Amino acid sequence: MTDDALGPALPTEGLSAEDAAVFERVWRRVMAGREQEQTALVPAGQPPAPPAPVGQTDGLLERLRIHTAGWRDTQALARKAGGSMARVLGGMAADERRQLARLAAAWYIVTGQRWRPEAGSSAPVPDLMEGLRQKYLHLQAAARTLEQSAQVGEDAFGGLYADLAAHSREHAGVILRLLEQMQM
């Protein structure tokens, strides 16, 4: 690719050919979206929406990806489990889907673009106990990260991140109780 086609040279040095190709495809989509935003017509009498603050969408996009992976992992655990544990995990997956919808709404507010999860699925769950252990650790780490993001002063999303952190902590507690029940 030339500098003219994509703007400044892309930072693909050190990436595998496959990763570089993925980066370039995503970069083209992002840049095409920005061009469309700049040329979009604004209804008469309505000022154009201000652009999202630099860096604000990066953290939000990362949260969307992490929550999507967590939601898919919980669905996989629910399929692996049986009985009441499957129902508990299914309810948790439904709650995670609702939280994902909240993040997607924030994404739309900031960017004006609808966000959809990328196609894919979670890795198969070979062992339910290990899957629950990994889910617990993931939820604890997610809660810490969300709490830090809320405290850093992200004005637009501080409250949302704090609420999501509380949900992560609550879900970690549920997972811990499930593991405790499996030990008896």
Which secondary structure elements does this structure contain, and how are they paired or packed?
Blueprint lengths: L2 H4 L10 H23 L16 H25 L2 H29 L16 H24 L6 H26 L1
Helix pairs in contact: 3-4, 3-5, 4-6, 5-6
Polypeptide structure, described:
With 184 residues, the chain is mostly helical. The protein has 6 helices and no strands. The longest helix has 29 residues, at 83-111. The termini are far apart. Residues 1-8 and 37-43 have low confidence and may be disordered.
* Largest sheet: number of strands, sense, barrel closure: none
Q: How many DSSP H or I helices?
A: 6
Number of strands: 0
Low-confidence stretches: 1-8, 37-43
Range of helix content: over 70%
Taking all residues together, what is the mean pLDDT?
A: 79
Order of helix and strand elements from N to C terminus: HHHHHH
Provide keyphrases for this structure.
disordered N terminus, mainly alpha, 184 residues, 71% helix
